[in-house]
Write a structure and sequence with these properties.
Porin, 189 residues, eight-stranded antiparallel β-barrel, mainly beta, 9 strands, 1 helix
Length: 189
């Protein structure tokens, strides 16, 4: 958790430093809440759950952003021999391509497509299950409605990742799940 906090702080500091050096770069902060929906084989192991997170983004151009995201899902496992509490942590870096369309005189409509890569960690409350970290990626579709410096965001992500079982002698597998989120964005400039 300490490494994650340092990574988020470094990303935010980099965005603010870049803003000072490049007048065209605009940092953003984007807290969000949503729903984690396991699909396929992942549904056999985890329950639907609430999802919380934070993104730090840098608007390079009005239609292009680079970003870092941290997401946290407190969920329940379906491992029979386990205490059922688990935490899924996903941290990644990515980019978004936006269309910017005015809605009247004050609002902007910004539908976007995004993709990125990073890692996912599974932490289990049960000592009989081994915590695991593996590579992850995503594709995203969403939209943002911006008024002045603030915006409301809706995003759907299809996450794909390798999954290492917390039980011994079980191979890694590629899996996916879906994240649906509602968030706010604050544009610093």
């Amino acid at each position: 958790m300490k490494k994650l906090t340092v990574m988020i702080a470094a990303l935010a500091a980099t965005a603010l430093a870049a803003q000072a050096q490049e007048p065209g770069l605009k940092p953003e902060i984007r807290p969000f809440v949503g729903m984690y929906v396991p699909t396929g084989d992942q549904r056999d192991l985890f329950e639907n759950a609430a999802m919380y997170g934070l993104q730090a983004a840098l608007e390079v151009r009005p239609n292009f952003h680079v970003l870092g995201t941290f997401g946290w899902v407190p969920t329940q496992t379906k491992y029979a021999a386990a205490s059922d509490q688990a935490w899924i942590l996903q941290y990644d870096a990515g980019m978004e391509l936006d269309m910017v369309r005015p809605l009247g005189e004050s609002w902007l409509w910004k539908p976007f497509f995004g993709l990125g890569a990073g890692a996912r960690t599974y932490r289990y409350d049960d000592d009989n299950l081994e915590n695991q970290t593996c590579a992850a990626g995503y594709v995203a579709l969403g939209t943002e409605f911006q008024y002045g410096r603030t915006a409301i965001r809706f995003e759907g992500r299809d996450n794909f990742f390798c999954y290492k079982s917390p039980l011994p002698n079980i191979d890694s597998k590629t899996r996916n799940d879906v994240g649906l989120s509602l968030g706010l964005a604050y544009h610093f400039r």
